[in-house]
Design brief:
- By secondary structure, the chain is mainly β.
- It has two domains: 47-118, Immunoglobulin-like (Sandwich), CATH 2.60.40; 137-295, Sandwich (Jelly Rolls).
- The chain has three helices and 18 strands.
- It has helices at 2-27, 137-140, 243-246, and strands spanning 47-51, 58-63, 70-75, 78-81, 85-89, 94-103, 109-118, 144-145, 154-159, 162-167, 172-182, 187-196, 202-210, 224-229, 239-242, 261-263, 268-279, 286-295.
- Strands 9, 10, 12, 15, 16 and 18 form a six-stranded antiparallel β-sheet that branches. The protein has a five-stranded antiparallel β-sheet with strand order 8-11-17-13-14.
- The longest helix is centred in the first third of the chain and has 26 residues, at 2-27.
- The protein is elongated and about 70 Å long.
- This is DUF4397 domain-containing protein.
- Residues 1-27 form the signal peptide.
Length: 296
């Protein structure tokens, strides 16, 4: 009797293993390139862009729904996850590339790309600096050289994406500037990305936002806002970051505290001036990009 029970158990075990094998085989694709049968290659990445009524520089992005389980967006440099509809505010003038990634079954993704062109910066939050990235000749032409140095030992040069100040010799300096329209009593923030591969032993890098009209050959001194200076304890080593983070020069209009906030007593033009110079200047120069003056 025990032999009969063992025999029956063996048959049941063989049957179970055979069934499991057929299940495993049935889940395998016919070829390696066909996936697991759960992916949907037809996920639709199409989307629409619609201006939002009553909101400046604001757009509604809406994903298509065919076979789409989730959406990911990249608008310019910003990334957004998991939204089928996305409202975006674009404060600054420029061209923004919108990339939509649609996610379907099995994690299958397809992408589509469109562009949004912002003609005018938002008056409240937009960057008021023209040519802030020095990207090309058109952007670089927005800046004027103050011609503080006539011997060629302090120069600003433009390359795609950067303005670079190089200084040699002793006590040489140079500046660039542009005019910007501002509103009375409104607070603004000034900032920029600055970098140098090595520090400078005796130098200044100063940013001004003054009402005085710059005069060629005359050092600018009206309303110093921020900067770097070896005497103040910053810039003697390599640096790379926002000036508001790596700088230490005090704001002359705010009780000589370190701050990048500015406010003006009149509506009209001010002059954003970036000036640098000194001795034992870093041999590779100081690079500047992403210059900003925007509403706080």
């Amino acid at each position: 009797m025990s032999l009969n029970i063992i025999f029956k158990k063996s048959i049941y075990l063989m049957f179970a293993l055979a069934t499991l094998g057929s299940i495993i085989v049935s889940c395998e694709p016919d070829t390696a390139s066909e996936g697991n049968g759960l992916e949907d290659p037809n996920v639709d990445p199409s989307f629409t862009i619609t201006p939002v009524a009553g909101k400046n520089n604001t757009y509604l992005l809406v994903s298509g729904t065919k076979n789409v389980l989730n959406s990911y967006w990249k608008v310019g440099k910003a990334e957004y996850y998991g939204k089928m509809e996305l409202e975006v505010f674009l404060a600054d003038r420029g061209k923004y590339t919108v990339v939509h990634t649609a996610v379907g079954r099995g994690g299958k993704t397809n992408t589509a790309t469109k562009e949004i062109i912002i003609v005018k910066a938002d008056p409240e939050k937009g960057n008021l600096v023209e040519g802030n990235n020095f990207a090309d000749a058109a952007e670089q032409s927005q800046w004027t050289n103050l011609h503080l140095n006539t011997n060629g030992l302090a120069t600003w040069t433009f390359t795609p994406g950067f303005a670079t100040i190089n200084v040699s010799g002793t006590s040489n300096q140079e500046a660039i500037y542009q005019a910007i329209d501002v509103v009375k009593d409104k607070e603004y923030l000034i900032d920029m990305h600055v970098s140098a591969t090595s520090g400078s032993e005796n130098f200044v890098f100063e940013v001004f936002a003054g009402k005085t009209v710059p005069t060629a050959g005359v050092p600018y001194t009206d309303n110093k806002v921020m900067g770097l200076a070896s005497a103040e304890g910053c810039g003697k080593q390599a640096f790379d970051g926002k000036l508001s983070a790596v700088g230490c020069v005090k704001n002359s209009a705010l009780d000589n505290t370190v701050s990048n906030v500015v406010k003006f007593t009149e509506t009209g033009k001010i002059y954003l001036v970036i000036k640098s110079g000194g001795d034992a200047f870093t041999p590779t120069g100081i690079k500047v990009t992403e210059v900003e003056l925007r509403g706080k």
